[in-house]
């Protein structure tokens, strides 16, 4: 009967010893806290994302003496290889060296002989004469002054001043007639959307030898008829 009692006594002492160690380590409280944390939801941070701390990546650079300055010449040296030397056959090796035109730009060509531009003095003189002529016309018929540029003298369109177009010309496409100083009539279409005289103007300009710097006076004698004075 002594052996069972001694076993029970030893087991009881072992259990008490384990409980004392658990109390010292507080493991039962730690396990309870872990269970409570697993049940509770994670708290949501009230701090806006913009105010949160940002993480920056750290990059280690080599010493300054190992860095090579990236100049424009150095970049071109790595991007573009030097041109290979020109090979010359044995038959022409004894001949004198020919000039190299690869890196030389061609000389700029001058203007064609028929492309002549008027000077500022000539433009001012022509505009003054056209203004004097316009003041002498009958005021009952509206008129406008149109200086000629290179594009007007050789082109296919002639734009009409915006204010004159809104006040006196139709709002839709229509045929108009230009009458020169010899009473010759030249029909040509008027494009209301662009406010310009279309095809037919080029023949009128070439036939009357208009050039850059000229200044014309257009007098509206009828709704779709203009007297052109040079």
Q: Do you know the CATH architecture of the domain at 120-229?
A: Beta Barrel
Strand order of the largest sheet: 1-6-7-3-4-5-2
Report the C-alpha radius of gyration, rounded: 49 Å
CATH class type of the domain at 120-229: Mainly Beta
Unreliable parts = none
The SSE order reads HHHHEHEHEEEHEE
Helix content: 25-40%
What gap, in angstroms, lies between the N and C termini?
A: 149 Å
What does the main sheet amount to?
7 strands, mixed
What is the count of DSSP helices, taking H or I runs of 4+ residues?
Answer: 7
Q: Any idea what the shape is?
A: elongated
Q: What is the arithmetic mean of pLDDT?
A: 77
CATH superfamily of the domain at 120-229: DNA-binding pseudobarrel domain
Beta-strand residue percentage:
15-25%
Q: Helix- and strand-based class?
A: alpha+beta
Notes on the protein architecture:
By secondary structure, the protein is an alpha+beta fold. It has a domain at 120-229: Beta Barrel (At1g16640 B3 domain). The protein is built from 7 helices and 7 strands, in the order H-H-H-H-E-H-E-H-E-E-E-H-E-E. It has a 7-stranded mixed beta sheet with strand order 1-6-7-3-4-5-2, with helices on one face. The mean pLDDT is 77.
